[in-house]
Amino acid sequence: MKSFRxxxxxxxxxxxxxxxxMSTTASSxxxxxxxxxxxxxxxxxxxxxxxxxxxxxxxNNPSYHYHLQPFHSPQHxxxxxxxxxxxxxxxxxxxxxxFKERRYLLxxxxxxxxxxxxxxxxxxxxxxxxxxxxxxxxNRNVIVYACDCSCxxxxxxxxxxxxxxxASVQQRFxxxxxxxxxxxxxxxxxxxxxxxxxxxKQHGCFSDVDExxxxxxxxxxxxxxxxxCLGGVDFVxxxxxxxxxxxxxxxxxxxxxxxxLKPGGLLLFRDYGLYDMSMLRFEPGQRVGSREYMRxxxxxxxxxxxxxxxxxxxxxxxxxxxxxxxxxxLVNRRNGKSMRRVWIHGKFQKPI
Length: 352
Ligand SMILES: C[S@@+](CC[C@H](N)C(=O)[O-])C[C@H]1O[C@@H](n2cnc3c(N)ncnc32)[C@H](O)[C@@H]1O
Prior knowledge:
- By secondary structure, this protein is α/β, with parallel strands linked by helices.
- The protein has one domain: 3-Layer(aba) Sandwich (Rossmann fold), CATH 3.40.50.150.
- It has helices spanning 4-20, 32-40, 51-59, 79-92, 105-108, 111-114, 132-138, 151-162, 169-172, 180-183, 192-196, 217-226, 250-260, 277-280, 306-316, and strands at residues 25-26, 120-124, 143-148, 173-177, 233-239, 261-272, 287-289, 292-294, 300-302, 319-332, 338-349.
- Strand 7 (287-289) and strand 8 form a beta hairpin.
- Helix 13 crosses helix 15 (306-316).
- The protein is globular, with a radius of gyration of 20 Å.
- The structure holds S-adenosylmethionine.
- Residues 36, 83, 86, 102, 125-127, 130-131, 147-150, 153, 178-181, 239-241, 244-245 line the site of S-adenosylmethionine (SAM).
């Protein structure tokens, strides 16, 4: 068993080697971690090929036709099984070896750098902190709340962020447990009255947070100091998390994001796009819905087209600011094969 000091040193080394790597290549393994690695290493460019060209090619290739068949009765497992699958995933991959900082993120979402002092960000499904760390690094004035449905990965996130030597990180990083698609976000983020109307922080509204909830002690400390909810956040980042949620629960999951945002706040979105290479690797038996798949470990993956995202966010009340496919050609370092990756980029605003 490694001591905490050794573990922290491992994490530091890992962070350092991540910072040194600047490559647009990826391994051909289909594992989630390698996908994350490939995406994290992508330098900022998004138009290597036209999505319409890829679409035409896939739809005219008989070997891909099973991906396009209608799926009338989506198989669904209980939401507890969904989060259990992620908890098991993180337990199996607890080394943290695959931590990859998403360096491109601040270029895609410069608002995270330019926002005012004390701006609040909620990172949903934070994993090991790949998205949290560049935000904290890129803006010293920002406070990041980050949730995940796995306590184990929250511990890893704390280690990664803690090993980064960022100034006053304890005050600026607040991880907490939450299965947001099942229970919604805790009321200490935005209480019922703030959810319905948040012009400015209203003082004197008491949170109904249950202290028996599995919230992080930092958060409870924060609450005790203010005796009130936070009054919502300025940004919600959802980076490769919505695709992990059952498609049936997506509309309510996005509505939750809407409720915890302040008026004028932004939902910053990135996720798998329709006909991404990783979608085409799923076998027919792994389909659990239209454009929805389940890996052998029980974790889900959905592949979005622009219309689907547009409908879900509009249904929740958001105004669309940006929405497009990022189409990136990655080249396998070992065999030189190219892989066409498709990701969705979206920026949506809660009306003022
Ligand atoms: C593919 S990872 C993305 C991690 C991170 N956002 C990033 O940029 O690397 C998806 C994460 O969402 C978490 N997750 C999945 N379903 C969730 C849910 N219902 N509530 C909270 N977290 C969830 C998983 O545990 C996992 O850590």
